[in-house]
Amino acid sequence: MQTPQLLLVVALLFGASVALTPPDAHSTPEVYEFLRSSQLPVLVFVYMHGCRFCQELEPNFLFLQRVFAGELALLKVDGKRATTFAHDLNIRSFPELLLYDPGKGQQTDADPSLLGRYPSARDRDLGSLAMFVSERTALMAHWPHSSVRDVTQDPRAQLDALRSDPLRTSLLVFVTPWMDRRSLQLFNGEQSTCILDHLAGTRELRENEVKIYRIDASNSTTALWTREFRVAVYPTVVLLAPDASGSQCEIHVPLRSGDLELRNHETDTLLNLVRHCAAGKVSDPQCLDFVSSFHGLRFLREQDVLPFNETQIEPDTPEFDFSNDDEQLFDSLRDL
């Protein structure tokens, strides 16, 4: 049986686009050997020959290899042959999906760490399977053929390129694996459910040449994006657009789960935001009126942008003299 390390080397040599067949374990020792040696989280598909539901699930299971390329190992297990493993996990029906922590070469007498068992009542569509992996491993799905650009390779160079072209209009979408399930589906789901792919195909975004970038804020490699745009709520969408003078402006749209004003209206809100504010229109009355009509939206011009750990003091704030008595000090603080 192929080891997880060998499969990873092959994927790196020949590219993630190559469809690799995951190993198929036919005995319990094979299963535990694979789990203990894997450097990656392992999704185990326990099946039975002749099982119609297993055959229906297999294509989606195999496609996860592309969605989490280089980050997730897959293992098929014949439940009727690896009977001890099936008994250990109390598997009574097929198919069964189990997610394990990386074994990383642990001792043979140590039990692999089970992260979760896929709920039998949940649909086994591709989006739900990917969401299950994300929720338990903190891995973000990267969907092939998506119109959204995931910021993964060389984040600093991508950020510098974005800042060096102030006339470009972009949508920056900050996400994490720990968002609620609805937000994961809308902002990092597969193309049929992801509103970002829907937006990318609209006339408004095509005509204004708006590019959409998705940033995993839980990843340390993209922390500089999160700091640069001072994002603390997930998901948050930032429209980066020029004003009439060519200066970059930011409009922040934090999508809090309890915000009833925006919930269920995310697509229309973002589409209207682009319609009113893209391509040099951020200073237009229509854009300003639209932004001010939502209590949660924030508008920042280039000169307003401060380091993430500083607070601006209004120029007319009264000053006080520390050398005078306490009364003046407290009067000044009260005015603040």
Automatic annotation (TrEMBL):
Protein name: LAQU0S19e01464g1_1
Residue ranges of domain Thioredoxin in the record: 33-107
Pfam families membership: Thioredoxin
Entry superkingdom: Eukaryota
CDD domains: PDI_a_family
Signal sequence, renumbered to the chain: 1-19
Protein's organism: Lachancea quebecensis
Xref: InterPro entries: Thioredoxin-like_sf, Thioredoxin_domain
Keyword Ligase: no
